[in-house]
Specification:
- It is built from 13 helices and 10 strands.
- The protein has helices at about 1-50, 75-85, 90-95, 140-150, 170-175, 195-200, 210-220, 225, 240-250, 270-285, 295-305, 320-325, 330-335; strands at about 100-110, 115-125, 130-135, 155-160, 165, 180-185, 255-260, 290-295, 305-310, 315-320.
- It has a 6-stranded mixed β-sheet, sandwiched between helices. Strands 2-1-4-5 form a 4-stranded antiparallel β-sheet.
- The radius of gyration is 36 Å and the shape is globular.
- Mean pLDDT is about 80; it is low at about 5-20 and about 40-70.
Length: about 325
Amino acid sequence: MAEDEKAKAAKKPAAKKPAAKKAAKKAAAKKATARTATAKKASAKKTSAKKAPAKKGAVSGYGSGSVDVVMSVDQVAKEAASIAANAPTVAELDAMVTGETFLSINNLRAGYGKMEILHDFNLRIGKGQSLCLIGPNGAGKSTVLHSIFGFTNIFSGSIMIDGKDVTALTPSQKLAEAGIAYILQDKSVFPQMTVEENLLMGGFLKNKPAEAKAAAEEVFSKYSRLAERRDKPAGVLSGGERRLLEISRALVMQPQVLLVDEPSIGLEPRFIDMVFEILDDLQRRDGKTIIMVEQNAKKGLAFADLGYVLVSGETAIAGDGDELLDNPDVGRLFLGG
């Protein structure tokens, strides 16, 4: 009897095994069904997202709207070169000058080392006028400024100021004797030196230190923003104040001609306006002759009396600043439409 009961007890667990397997299979089937349903829902969402039409007025990318035509730098240069076929003559450049020609560049061939960048380049500007040079990268805009100030190799041609040939003068001679000052691009101040010390550095070619000191005081009387910070390190100035200091330092030598390289570079819009107001004051009130290279072509042409469009080391288009602003080719190629 005991043996029969033991045999029955031994058989009971074995009888339960099929039931456990069935339950496990059902649970696995439920999980699989749930996973399949979730996957179908996710797939349906993706499909509906793809099919959903874009909302009117929606933007993509950087959110700046669509661009109908994008021109590469090479395309701009190629189209500008075709325009250069009707380049202005020297007589036409002369006609744009107000009064007598004060600074002229005549058939200049110049560059760096043995590389020629400017090819028979001509320029005319009257005393107290302003000129903005624009054009594609590599057109030779900065090379014009460098050549006037003596930073390039001159292969042929001449540079005249007020009837004097200054072609072969060194940069120091051009500053001290010909009254030409070069205002470099941003970050040319000495940050550890005070504002006053930076200004005095601008007068290093003065015969007497007292002359540089007097010129610096004139700058302080003109620009209170600098006077208030005269004993502060130049490194603590804002971007606009540093640009003002760079311009003011060039004024210590009391130049007649200002060569301004990218005055708006690296500045916030409010400081850009301030810098152009200062340049306008220097031209209109102090009678400075200004030649600038400006990346913001619209701003530069709006400021300048004259504008030259350079292409491959030559002048392709020239005219009044306002005239170039209204020129459809200039607008399409250099002003963003």
